Amino acid sequence: MLQKSIEQALNNQIRIEAESSQIYLSMACWAEVQGLEGVAQFMYKQSDEERQHMLKLVKYVNERGSHAKITELKAPKTTFGTFKEMFEELYKHELFVSNSINELVHITLGEKDYSTHNFLQWYVAEQIEEEAQAKTILDKINLIGEDRGGLYLFDRDIQQIVVTSSISLNQNI
After folding, report:
1. Which of 22, 99, 125, 158 is the most buried (most CB within 10 A)?
2. Residues whose CB falls within 8 Å of the CB of residue 116, separated by 6 or more in sequence, listed in order
3. φ, ψ dihedrals at 36, nearest 5°
């Protein structure tokens, strides 16, 4: 059975992961209506990943004899000035999630819950990847600048991230 402080912190992270899924789903919808099909596919994939992160936490909490709680979520933003602004928000959000995971790890160490600490190491590694990917995408967007042709190529190329990630994921199953 998890200590109440750990259960509460994990339930908070469940909400954050669920909100992350909603944020990326909202970004996918916005990108799709802007004609950015590649960006939309990327964001749909990100939304699915965040939901899987949430479910992994839910299963862990319940398997440890505690109770995962599904709570109300904040509505995500639905419009973005530009696709660059959208990706800047994505990067900031990933930094926020990393900070939240790090705080959760800190709590587990303080409570001497080494099992949960060990479980969370997957999330720590995942956030390193998520931040790096978001930063790389922002770097590419900054290289494009205001070039419309560059935007077209970027939208096409980001689909490769989706395809590559799907192939990699399927090979790990």
Report:
1. 158
2. 2, 6, 10, 60, 64, 108
3. -95, 75
Task: Give the integer Cα–Cα distance in Å for 106 and 104.
Answer: 5
The count of domains in the chain is 1
Angstrom distance (rounded) from CA 52 to CA 58:
10
Q: CB of 88 within 8 A of CB of 138? A: yes
Quote the tokens at residue 98. Answer: 């990393």
Q: Which amino acid is at 99?
A: N
Enclosing domain of residue 69: 4-172
pTM of the model: 0.90
List the one residue out of 77, 78, 61 whose CA is nearest residue 15: 61
Burial category of 110 from C-beta neighbours within 10 Å (exposed 0-12, middle 13-18, buried 19 and up) = exposed
pLDDT tens-place string over residues 86-128: 999 999 999 999 999 999 999 999 999 999 999 999 999 999 9
Query: Which CATH number is 70's domain given?
Result: 1.20.1260.10
